[in-house]
# Entry
Amino acid sequence: MKLALDLDGVTCTFPGRAGSAGAYTAISGVDLRVGEGEFVAVVGPTGCGKSTLLNVAAGLLLPTSGSVTVFGELLTGINRRSGYLFQTEALMPWRSALDNVTAGLEFRGVGGQEARARAAGWLKRVGLTAHAHKYPHELSGGMKKRVALAQTLILDPKIVLMDEPFSALDVQTRSLMENELLNLWAQDRKSVVFVTHDLEEAISLSDRVVVMSAGPASRLCAGNAAPFTTAGRRAMVSNQRARWGRSPIGTSMMHPALTQGQQAISAIEYSSPARYSTAASRKFNTSSRRFASLTYRSMA
# Structure
């Protein structure tokens, strides 16, 4: 597989304040390789350096040691092949939804008429055509995230970096946004590095899950392949109509806890939403939690 992003032995150490004990090492000797078109989720406890890792990948932070390679080229500045979806809001409050989406194109010198036409197309893709004229304060949390997603993807980045983008949303809106993300990702298969605290979310969305140890001097543990195809993830995320495809790693290779969960959902007939029973949901969630627990223990 061709590598889109290669972090090799990356260490980030920050100098201590005057009078403090000394320097602080956020991450130490991290190796992370993301293939072209691969969706990788990074999970770990608070303060383990997940955001630091993304900042290094984006070229916003120079590592103390180690190297970053993007599509075979050494990264020496800003990673212009990446798009960054931040955890906090990054929309400009004085611009409408449409103007926020056009901002990146304007900064790159794209003409106003062309930029607005392309932005309108992206707002249509994320279901916000009727809200193009609204300002950020007039949008719900989910709508703001959709605008931010369109703002990032309109520049056609080859790598998408996402720092807990849905953590502040309510459960229902979060599920809708996860489903929307999978729909957009399935269309052109960009490389994605998705940071989250929620291991169940990581398992459901990604091709591969890697776990970071607790800081300081966090390291990246070995990753596990996620057990679901895109259709399967979408079914779990949205509980809407979907059909399971063949698992990329094969059912026989799954941990029994996940196999039971997949079988519980696969047995449901999606022709009627009511057929998605509470018992099946509970069985799947229990299996996911068992897998999460096993993953954390095995990578400690």
